[in-house]
Design brief:
A five-stranded mixed sheet has the order 3-4-5-6-7, with helices on both faces. Strands 1-2 form a two-stranded parallel sheet. By secondary structure, it is of the alpha/beta class. The protein folds into two domains: about 220 residues, NAD(P)-binding Rossmann-like Domain (Rossmann fold); about 60 residues, no CATH class. Strand 6 and strand 7 form a beta hairpin. About 30% of the residues are buried. The C terminus is likely disordered. Helix 1 packs across helix 7.
Length: about 300
Amino acid sequence: MAPAGLGSPLGLYLTAAGVGRIGLVDFDVVDYSNLQRQVIQGTKDVGRPKLQSAKDRLMDVNPFVQIDTYETTLRSDNALELFEAYDVIIDGTDTFPTRYLTNDASVLLGKPNVYGSIFRFEGQASVFFPRGGGPCYRCLYPDPPPPGLVPSYAEGGVLGILPGIVGLIQAAEAVKLILGEGESLIGRLLLFNALQMRFRELKLRRDPTCPLCGEKPVIRELIDYDQFCGITPSEEETTEAADWEITVTDLKAKLDRGEPLTIIDVRDPHEWQICNLESYGSKLIPLGQFAARMPTGCFNRLDLNGSRT
């Protein structure tokens, strides 16, 4: 699991419960925007690798638990090796390629996958475990949605409290699986709506035609999950920037160095509310208002159709 939104309550409560060995997979650093939902981090951790700050916090909770950290992305070429040492896999990811990867690796290794998903004010939880008589993630979602149709919670936003609720459900399921007690969410999908404060439950069955866990499986190894989900590198990522452009990497480097910059965000206000660079001094001027707010003679290098904004 990752020490992010869902992984924060998971890590804290599994460590407090005395789970003997916990593995964390992540490669990101702590940002102020994380703190409303990633309660394992604090303001003093901003700028630190998430794995380092998470391990320090977890060891403070229970120094007798072994915390393994893997500062890497979860990929097809390392997932099986990373998962091999653990009895229960917990999915705290927020992208479809990684969810399918986590599911497939868990099924191929015969391990239960404690699934959680959140978006805005709603969450889901289940346990995918074909060896235990239940379905896998592919039985519920045989095909991924078209790229860009469903934003991640980083893009679409999430109520900061929601990861805590769903993450605690996942933690409870993991402990029950370890102890072999109670009735797990195998074969059940738990749906939660925070605005209505209401839980619903759907019954899940294994799909006999599932290419991974069905009667005649055809998936016997991990695949290219970006390709499976229809994600390809954009043109901007595969070509060099023009002289009037700047890449995301270059902009981040300039911001980190504290270079004086004027950042104008030309998106609509509702897009600005989801995510913005206001902390770096970015100003919102929607594209439709841009011409009226610019001094005369400033358009010799500006394409108001949007290609040079």
